């Protein structure tokens, strides 16, 4: 029991260290990609190729004056960034990022923990994040911040429905909420005349529509372009975090990047076979590489959208969520249930 606790604590420390480092460097990664898309250099002054820019930004945030307006609800105002940040980090406890490796004579599974309702745990935590945004807007005693928080709650509730329904098809096929079992369900390949053609990932196994709905809804949940109405600088003066400064302001952006990694990891796990790939059984460490590459593809996609698409109007955003994605999600459930009935 003691050995299990020690190994778990080591895995938690390693995962959180890597995660926080990746979150820091996602900022320069995004700015570099946007600079490439928009034909400008991006950060290139601090360190070789600008690689020390995240360190400089972190030092700047630490030493900036931490202003707390006089009329705010101070307790809620201080807690709001933590409510946004902590659930975003806790979701990684159940995400499998690899198979198993042999280390010091022990078999170590590459996940922090495994629970039979892992997907439910992830959705429960990600739904809490919106409270941080709403509380930030409400506690700021600023009507523009409050409007930004209310916009965010309306948007995230709207797209949370389509997001949750988009994975029902995967659950019908896998028959479990355990993320480990969902990955295991995607083992093998589709064969035509005995020749392997495609991996047995859910995106190829009757779930392309669910995958598209999940991807669009996840981007809306992240409040990123073209769905970044909660911030909408032109009319809301940066929205829910208008009154924030220093590290409390930075925590909202750290939560956004953490949630972007979470959305990418969940999409990889549910639709792209998770850590599965060629020769994983022979070389287990390849599972981590495959998982990382798939997650990076999704992150690049989210950044690419930011650099190419304009912001929706609010009526367009709501119409897409309620009149397009939600009916399509129900259609996907009907198709998936029908296929599962006949295939079984």
Structure description:
With 344 residues, this protein is mainly alpha-helical. It has one domain (75-343). Helix content is 64%, strand content 5%. Helix 1 (2-37) crosses helix 10 (246-271) and helix 8 (208-221) runs antiparallel to helix 10 (246-271). It is globular. The mean pLDDT is 86.
SSE order in H/E notation? HHHEEHHHHEEHHHHH
Tally of contiguous helical segments = 12
Biggest beta sheet summary: 2 strands, antiparallel
Classify the secondary structure makeup into a structural class.
mainly alpha
Unreliable spans are none
Instruction: Give the number of DSSP strands.
Output: 4
CA-atom Rg in angstroms: 21 Å
- Average residue pLDDT: 86
Note the topology.
Layout: H1 2-37, H2 53-63, H3 74-90, E1 100-103, E2 106-109, H4 118-139, H5 143-166, H6 168-174, H7 179-184, E3 189-192, E4 195-199, H8 208-221, H9 233-236, H10 246-271, H11 286-308, H12 314-343
Antiparallel strand pairs: 1-2, 3-4
Protein traits:
344 residues, mainly alpha, two-stranded antiparallel ribbon, 4 strands, globular
Concise account of the structure shown:
The chain has helices at residues 2-37, 53-63, 74-90, 118-139, 143-166, 168-174, 179-184, 208-221, 233-236, 246-271, 286-308, 314-343, and strands at residues 100-103, 106-109, 189-192, 195-199. The chain is mainly alpha-helical and 344 residues long.
């Amino acid at each position: 029991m003691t050995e299990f606790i020690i190994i778990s604590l080591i895995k938690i420390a390693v995962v959180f260290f890597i995660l926080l480092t990746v979150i820091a460097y996602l900022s320069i990664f995004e700015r570099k990609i946007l600079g490439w898309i928009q034909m400008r250099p991006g950060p290139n002054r601090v360190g070789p190729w600008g690689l020390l820019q995240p360190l400089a930004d972190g030092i700047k945030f630490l030493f900036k004056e931490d202003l707390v307006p006089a009329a705010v609800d101070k307790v809620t105002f201080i807690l709001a960034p933590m409510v946004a940040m902590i659930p975003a980090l806790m979701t990684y406890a159940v995400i499998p990022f690899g198979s198993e490796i042999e280390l010091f004579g022990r078999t170590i599974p590459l996940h922090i923990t495994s629970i039979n309702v892992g997907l439910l745990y992830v959705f429960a935590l990600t739904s809490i994040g919106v409270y941080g945004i709403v509380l930030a807007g409400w506690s700021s005693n600023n009507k523009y911040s409050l409007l930004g928080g209310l916009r965010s709650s309306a948007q995230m509730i709207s797209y949370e429905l389509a997001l949750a329904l988009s994975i029902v098809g995967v659950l019908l096929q896998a028959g479990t909420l355990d993320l480990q079992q969902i990955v295991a369900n995607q083992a093998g390949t589709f064969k035509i005349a005995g020749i392997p053609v495609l991996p047995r990932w859910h995106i190829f196994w009757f779930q392309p529509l669910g995958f598209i709905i999940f991807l669009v809804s996840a981007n809306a949940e992240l409040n990123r372009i073209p769905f970044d109405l909660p911030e909408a600088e032109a009319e809301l003066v940066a929205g829910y975090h208008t009154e924030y400064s220093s590290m409390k302001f930075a925590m909202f952006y750290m939560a956004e990047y953490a949630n972007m990694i979470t959305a990418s990891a969940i999409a990889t796990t549910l639709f792209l076979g998770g850590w599965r790939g060629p020769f994983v059984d022979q070389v287990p460490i390849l599972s981590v590489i495959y998982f990382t590459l798939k997650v990076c593809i999704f992150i690049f996609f989210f950044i690419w959208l930011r650099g190419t698409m304009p912001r929706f109007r609010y009526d367009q955003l709501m119409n897409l969520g309620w009149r397009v994605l939600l009916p399509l999600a129900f259609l996907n459930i009907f198709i998936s249930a029908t296929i599962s009935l006949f295939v079984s």
